[in-house]
Design goal:
Blueprint: H1 26-33, H2 37-42, E1 47-53, E2 58-71, E3 74-87, E4 90-100, E5 106-117, E6 120-131, E7 134-143, E8 146-155, H3 165-178, E9 185-190, E10 196-211, E11 214-225, E12 233-239, E13 245-250, E14 255-258, H4 263-270, H5 281-304, H6 307-322, H7 327-335
Length: 351
Amino acid sequence: METPLDDETPASTEGVEPREDLKASDEALAFLSNIEPAELQKCVFPDSLVTVSDSGKDLGMFRVTVEFARRDQQPCVLLQAQSHGTIDDAPCGTTVTAYLTSELGVLEEDYHEYIKLEGHAVNKRCHMVQQDGQMVIDKVTTVGEEVTKESVSFPMSVLRGLVTEGSNLLLMRLIALRKAVPENMTFITFDQGLHIVLTSFSELGLNLLEVGCETVEVFGVERIVQSVEGEPITWQCYFLDDGHLASRVQVGSPITMSCLLLPSQQEKGLEKIPLVWQEDMEMRSKFLDRKEELKADHASYLRQHPEIRALISDFLQFLLLRKPQDVFQFAREYFLPFASRQPSTPSLKKQ
């Protein structure tokens, strides 16, 4: 949802000086410079995982898509990641949209994180873009009615080996496809305070994981993100043989993101058999009868739930009031608090 920043109280703007001693390792820079087009081609696919608690309760969804695109007529890779769900009955979610070069350099990235607590909401938006040899970053944090703005910029010369929230997801796909993490795989990134910090990747080796009804071998990658203002954050991810993400967890968190079906099973479930029902008189008759039944059933349901019309009417009024550029994103964020609770599903177990 768009935040009316111009109507809020002014907030501070700070500059952050880069530390010259924090640099990506030679091994990390070599990895980025040696990415082949054929490797990127193998990374163009979607990932879908469910988010579950340690008790197996379904909390939401996590989805990543990677595709080739163009930005300002420049060929690039577009990565989009979305997670949404509830924590302690509070709707929350994260959206990342990143335009990347073939060496995972960030051309532009938008990061949005929110949680809707009782009585107020917390929104964090961070946008970074390359402009005139600089990486310009604008961050807006909204807590209830209080808005804080931060704007910083760094020369691109000090950001060699930068890995962001968006490029990190694609980087780990590439690592998983190679099934090896070079020694001293250390990059730079930004922490929550927009300071340059180190982030390192290491190999967790092979493991067994239950996906659906099968036990499969997965390759593990661990990422540690340092912080100037807090403790390091550690992520552990396990990937299938073809690079698909099978499990993702932040160490110390009771929440796990897990794959419920193997990609081959997901594709099989989406297969459709062509059906020319118009040429089958019996089937056409059944279709028309069923159509009338559904219309009557839907009309009855709407009469029993007048709040539906009110909800849609409120949404359209709010949409026309805000007039957002991205209608789909606006609708996603507007309806998220009303998302129905899904029945719990068993969590995946590592062997």
